[in-house]
Amino acid sequence: IFPMSQTGEQTSWIVTKYDHVKELLKSKSFIKDQSKFMEHSSSEEPDLITSVFQNMMLDVDPPDHTRLRKLVQPYFNPKKIKELEPRISEIADQLLADISRKEGAIDLIEDFAFPLPIIVISELLGVPAEDRNKFRKWSQTILSAADNLEADFIHDTEDFLTYLKKLFDERKENPQEDLISSLLQAEEEGDQLNREELYSMIVLLIIAGHETTVNLIGNTMLALFEHPEQLEKLQADLTFTDSAIEEGLRFYSPVDFSTARWAEEDVDFHGRTIRRGDLVLASLSSANRDEDKFENAETFDITRSQNPHIAFGYGIHFCLGAPLARLEGNVAIKKLLTTFPDIRLYDSHPRWQHVFLLRGLSELKVA
Ligand code: HEM
């Protein structure tokens, strides 16, 4: 663990070793609710935008976290997710058929890795997949809030919430077999979910479903192109797809850092004193290449048999969407390699995007 920056009394820390990252993410001394450290909390009710970000499951502690997670967990358990496989395969086939009709090099991100998870999460939630460009803009503004003008952030978030309000009203009139309809029912019934939490949950699921699996598909394909002998091994035996996905998650972790935690009290952590209110981030990508945990950590090996990576985090905030992301990754890579057995990298300098917390490509040209 080492200090990253200091603002006034508060130090920000970063944890990089595998065992330390797990310890941090499991520890009850590091919490998500930053408002505990605010000296003057306002007595006014926060506006909807503020409360949407304060109420996200990813940013709250138990018991609220436990209650919110319980509401959505049944929709994302591995058995339920497995039922989506035929539909995910169909969507992948359609996207690949469109790609086959194109001439010249194609951008694997724009034409495949991006639309696939979006269409899947949109259908699961019950938001129209045709509106995906809007969601993309809103998600990107929200994620890059630090680099953006405040005005953009507020404007796009307001548009996003107005859009959701309209959708909620429609679904109330005409409920469907989707997650939004079922959460609306939970909200109406009262004590499980309030209005702000409903918005927070949908915004979180849309952003998480948009910005992560695209990186898993893109990063794993890049690692395969960079290690042609591994690509060949996988093409010869597609039963390695699952372990290739796990290795992609470890080697080019799609989520670079965990979200922030704050020390609830002064804590001694591996030789350092973390003061109450200090911010701590875990580097998942660094932990996943810790030589003390992984043999030949810098080697991309799709046949690695022991791969306890923590690309999906650890502890109570462990990724809700992990079974879905794994299934999408598996279907995507299998279909891609069987449809285009001669696929190769077209541009040897793929571009990484610069978004805080995430690691993914903005473009991956293949031929
Ligand atoms: C949480 C990674 C895909 C929904 C997390 C966390 C990580 C992560 C590291 C924990 C963050 C922290 O503790 O600060 C990933 C990766 C993905 C992926 C690498 C793809 C390869 C998805 C998908 C969904 C999703 C597809 C949605 C459908 C969530 C949610 C949480 C979460 C709701 C918060 C869970 C909680 O607070 O209990 N994810 N994620 N993720 N992820 Fe994912």
TrEMBL record:
State the signal peptide span. Answer: none
The record's InterPro entries line, in alphabetical order, gives:
Cyt_P450 (IPR001128), Cyt_P450_B (IPR002397), Cyt_P450_CS (IPR017972), Cyt_P450_sf (IPR036396)
* Top-level taxon in the UniProt lineage: Bacteria
Among Pfam families, the record links this protein to:
p450 (PF00067)
Q: Which UniProt keywords apply?
A: Heme, Iron, Metal-binding, Monooxygenase, Oxidoreductase
CDD domains, per this entry? CYP107-like
Iron recorded as keyword: yes
Family per similarity comment: Belongs to the cytochrome P450 family.
What PANTHER family has UniProt attached to this entry? Answer: CYTOCHROME P450 YJIB-RELATED, P450, PUTATIVE (EUROFUNG)-RELATED
Listed name of the protein: Cytochrome P450
Taxonomic classification, please? Answer: Bacteria, Bacillati, Bacillota, Bacilli, Bacillales
